[in-house]
Amino acid sequence: MFLAIIQFIFFIIFLVVGALFMNTLAKTLKLVRFENRKIHPDQVWLLFVPIFNYYWLFRTVAGVSESIDTEYKRRGLPSPIATATWIGYVYAATFTLNFLLTVLNRYFSANIPLLLTGLIGIASFGFWIAYWIVIAGLKQQLKALPAEEDSLIFSNIPVQH
Q1: Angle (CA) 88 91 93, round 5°
Q2: Other CB atoms closer than 10 Å to residue 122's CB: what's the count?
Q3: What is the mean pLDDT of each run of 10 residues along the chain (161 residues)?
Q4: Number of domain units in the chain
Q5: Euclidean distance between CA atoms 136 and 84, whole angstroms
Q6: TM spans, by residue (predicted)?
Q7: What is the three-class DSSP state of 39?
Q8: Residue 131 covered by a domain
Q9: 36 located within any domain
Q10: pLDDT digits (tens, 9 = 90+) for 35-56
Q11: Is the pTM higher than 0.70?
Q12: Residue 34 domain flag
């Protein structure tokens, strides 16, 4: 009984932290102009769908990266997304690899060392936190960008009032 309670508490914590992460992704995408989005902000919530989330994580990383990159380029600004992109892909790859190795061990008796899956799991967790931090930083940068009419692209065009 005690173990079931502990498992339930960890499950609730997992859901809350996962929701906070996805909320950061969604809010970041909402700061990108509609025409520059490669993924809709509400689509990040598909990461809650079991099994599908391993595929969708790669799509989300790509969509967030391309959206931010396009936003910056259309404003005539250098894109800061390269670091977030590679961290996101490494996170997605280690997360998926850890799942696959765990499934192989549990259901197919693959005898993959527990140390290996544990190290990959720890790496995945570290890259997830790093990705979250980088995206949160980019969200703050997007908030600080000038409004569309004040963008550097349009700075030399006279505006009639």
Answers
A1: 110
A2: 12
A3: 92 96 98 96 97 98 97 93 96 97 90 92 97 97 78 48 45
A4: 1
A5: 10
A6: 6-23, 44-61, 81-101, 113-134
A7: coil
A8: yes
A9: yes
A10: 999 999 999 999 999 999 999 9
A11: yes
A12: yes
